[in-house]
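Ex. 9. Protein: MFS transporter.
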Amino acid sequence: MKALIPAVLREEPQFARLFAGQSLSVLGDRVSFVAVPFAVLAVGGSASDVGLVAAAGLVPMLVFTLVGGVWADRFRRHRIMLASDLARFVVQGAAAGLLLAGLAGVPELALLMLLFGTADAFFMPASTGLLPLVVAPERLREANALRGLVQSAGLVVGPAVAGLLVALAGPGGALAFDALTFAASAAFLLRLRPREKAVTGGAGGTFLGELRAGWAQVRSRTWVWSGMAAMAVYHVVVLPSVFVLGPVIADREWGGAASWSLVTAAFGVGAVAGDVCAYRLKPARPMALAAAALAVASCQALIIGSGGPVVLIAALEAVTGVGVSLFFVLWETSLQTHVPEDSLSRVSSYDHLLSAGLMPLGLVLAGPVSAALGLRPTLFAMTVLGVPAALALLCLPSVRQLPADRPVADGSGPPPADVPPPADVRRPGLADDPAHDRGLDVPA
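Predicted structure tokens for MFS transporter:
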């Protein structure tokens, strides 16, 4: 039985606690993804209202993600995640209560999703930055793969659980379940004991100074800013083919939601397989493999618009699911390995801002562009833009040559390419103050 438990969970007890809590939270997120649109429709909302409420949850990403990155590098990251989980517990609990009491309307749901998205924006940079503090460097790839496996499995299991909960208890009951998963995640975070961040210096004492220092970490590494640019293209250009145009073409040509469910489930199965591969593979040049995987993932629009049989489209989408999982596991592991610990959350916040934060732009434009150009020409154009962006990433020497492990500085030669030398000064007003890390502390 012990052999069935991954080594990283057996040997890293702090990560095991984090993993348990986040696994429950991910399941709740998948349930919420299905329940919220049905909640809007249940209170008399229209399709436009569904889009409004969804956008309300995404807009805070543009406003607060960078703030969350600075805070996560200033304070203890697991405490920020704890505060975010508690806030989301309250928000989802309030939404569930209003729905179950018959008092909810579209404005109330939109406001609550705005608050939910704000807490979410603080959680994600802290989460990315926390992992190196609870896992040994040689286990980072395995830890990211396990996290990705839970995310991918949620794509398959979550909608089924959501459908059952909505049928039995309505959208309010489903959101109450999501609220409880945040409470469970918070309980695990309360017991977490991550090690302290290493301080390498280089940031200013003001918010803008620290933000600029975080951007300097991005700008000084070609593989980082080019990877973010490629991801921005993927989120803004390619993913709208899945979230907007895919359901449209399924409704018009494939016979409706059942066929689209088959395609999305196949993608989820492929994503699970990709996470298993990421757990087992040990590539010497992880970003080279990641860029190739992103090129495969960027073929989704072409596959959806190919006009082939639904079974073939589902099989090909499963292949792109493998590519998506491989890319994100290897990308996050590379960031956590090569970016200084005390800058990691700020770098991650730029990552989220330039990828997921910009995705609403693509979602808004996909419909009007397809109406003007036609559905298939738009899907083909998405591929023409998306695949070359990933291949351009693969062409960069700093991407192809990035090693799996952080280079060891022994003083015998120049510093590795694309890595700035360490700063000579620590953060004034913060790093020199032993109490600066207590801003979000609560009793453990």
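Check your answer against this statement. DSSP finds 17 helices and no strands in the chain.
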